[in-house]
Write a structure and sequence with these properties.
Elements lengths: L12 H9 L5 E5 L5 H5 L4 E5 L4 H11 L10 E4 L3 H6 L4 H12 L7 E3 L1 H9 L3 E5 L8 E4 L9
Parallel strand pairs: 1-5, 2-5, 3-4
Antiparallel strand pairs: 1-6, 3-6
Helix pairs in contact: 3-5
Length: about 150
Amino acid sequence: MVALKGIPKVLSPELLFALARMGHGDEIVLADANFPTSSICQCGPVEIRADGLDIPQLLEAVLRLLPLDTYVESPAAVMDLVPSDKEKGLQTPIWKHYESLLLKADCKKALMKIERFEFYERAKKAFAVVATGEMALYGNIILKKGTLDLGPS
C-alpha cells in the first residue's frame, strides 16, 4: 500500500515505479494466475507481484495514472481463445469488464485479440509483467503507454 494522496491503494510502490519509468510505446502486462510470469520475465520484463488482486480492480487503478497510446490501432490487447475453446463456445465476460473500464478511461478503441503464442512473445518484450490472482480464463491484458499532453512549455 502507498501512503500518498490520490494514489489507489492497490498500486504497490514497485508498480508505481514501473509505470513512472515506462516511456511512450512501452507495454505492461496484467497477467492472470495461470500466466507463466516468472518464465516470461526471464526474457527481460520486470516481474511485479500483485497476487491477491483481481485484474479489473488493478486495471481501474492503473488507468487512473497511465496514459494509453492514441497512435496505435489499439492500446489494449488480450490473449485470443485457442481454437478448441472457440469451438466449445467458451465465454470471456471479463473482456466486457475491461472494455467498460477502458471506455471510462476515455479509450474508445476495441480490444485487440492476439493469438496465444504471439501474446507470450509480445509479453517477453514488455517493460513489466504484473502477476495477479485473477482466476478468469483469458484474463491477461497488455497495455501500451501513450503520452501526456503537457501543453506549451
